[in-house]
Amino acid sequence: METIEKSSHPNKKKRQEIVQNTINFEACLKRTNSERQAAKKRDEQLPQRKRGRPIDYDSHITQAKAEAEDAELSDKSLKRIDKASKKVDTMVATILFFWITVNAYFKQLGLSTEGKNMIRDHLIPIYYLAETAKKASKAALRKDLENKSQALRATLNEEPSWQSLTDLEREQYHNARLFHRSSSCVEGRNEQLSLKQHNLKRMSNSKLKALTVVHNYFIKRADGTTAAERFFEEKPIDLFEYLIDHLDYPAMPAKRRRAA
């Protein structure tokens, strides 16, 4: 199903940023794939004693699968390893995309090398661990993450360069809350899809796309807003009217053939 668009959009800048971020991520994914393939070819051309990249994901996955087979684990466990192996490129691309965004943020602020290190090595981990701790399901894990975040904060407070900053400058660094986990806004929908996937054994891609459109453009909260309206900060066109304008009418049923 096509994406619903509106002819005139007052918040074009935000939509352009969203599109650009999507393009950047896809470029990171392609870059990740090409770099892994190129590294694999270079590795194959080296003598056996010199082979091995700093992080050889393929060999780790192969080793995990071999150990699982030696341990005579179930087929379900082997399928989980296969499933994880398919996510490697996307995960690497996500991390690459994040650091490209961070570097762009540094460039925009005109930070010094010392300031970049302060945000990268202290502030980002501090806020990330603190936010992750709030969402952890187990109390022991929450406590562990909170302790790590507080330990990093204590280390930062002891840094001479951090102590020398004025309150205004320190507040500017605190505003650099990057890499917050942003899955909470879709966890409810993911749970619904997981339940449907379990009940129906497997959903087709077309049904998944249809459910996505219904979720984004049709289902409304108590305040009458849809997910798309809250995201783009503008009311989209009516979904039913859009379907009427863009979908063909169903074909007439075939006439029943007369018996010979």
Helicity, as a percent range: 55-70%
Ranges where pLDDT stays below 50 over 5 or more residues in a row are 1-10, 48-54, 182-187
Radius of gyration: 25 Å
Overall residue-averaged pLDDT value: 73
What is the makeup of the main sheet? none
Q: What number of domains?
A: 3
Strand content: under 5%
- Which class best fits the helix and strand makeup? mainly alpha
State the shape. extended
Strand count: 0
Distance between the termini: 42 Å
* Continuous helix count: 12
User: H/E order of the elements?
Assistant: HHHHHHHHHHHH
InterPro entries: DUF6399
Pfam family, one: DUF6399
Region (Disordered): 30-57
Report a brief summary of the structure.
The protein contains twelve helices and no strands. The protein has helices at 12-45, 57-70, 75-85, 88-109, 113-135, 139-157, 160-163, 167-174, 187-199, 205-217, 227-232, 239-246.
